[in-house]
Amino acid sequence: MKSKTIVSILIVILGIAGLVWWGRSAQNRVSANPNSNLSANALQALETLYDFGTISMRNGLVDHVFKVTNSSDKDIYVKKISTSCMCTSAYIESANGKKGPFGMEGMNYVPPANETIKAGESRDIRVVYDPNAHGPAGVGAIDRFIYLTDASGSTLQFEIRAIVTP
């Protein structure tokens, strides 16, 4: 009986040690690539969070514009723009016009952004939120995200918040 208890305790200890080792090795893999956050460093935005405050469903759509600047000395190809919910859409705007809407992946077709931001250039990212999209169940606090992903897979994230009232 004692030997079974000792064996069980040893198995538990080895299991915990294995999980700790696995967690540390996963953490090292994530930070091993110094270029993994290239886009977040090269594409910059003075504002990445916007709070609409309290908004009413009866007033309809609200929007906000985030400005993105390529602060690097190389062109950045924005491959895709997506949102975290179907109630939110995004557009990329420049002097040449507007592309979009870009929405939630997996729910509808989200076209590729195919936008090159040259070194030193800026683009406006217009985010539109529809407080009526969820119907009466959508009343309360919301928190939505918008993602710009470059050709290397690096992502710059924006966030919008609001309190939705009827």
TrEMBL record:
Pfam families: DUF1573 (PF07610)
Transmembrane segments: 6-23
InterPro entries assigned: DUF1573 (IPR011467), Ig-like_fold (IPR013783)
Keyword Membrane: yes
UniProt entry keywords in alphabetical sequence: Membrane, Transmembrane, Transmembrane helix
Keyword Membrane annotated: yes
PANTHER family: LIPOPROTEIN-RELATED, SIGNAL PEPTIDE PROTEIN
UniProt-recorded name of the protein: DUF1573 domain-containing protein
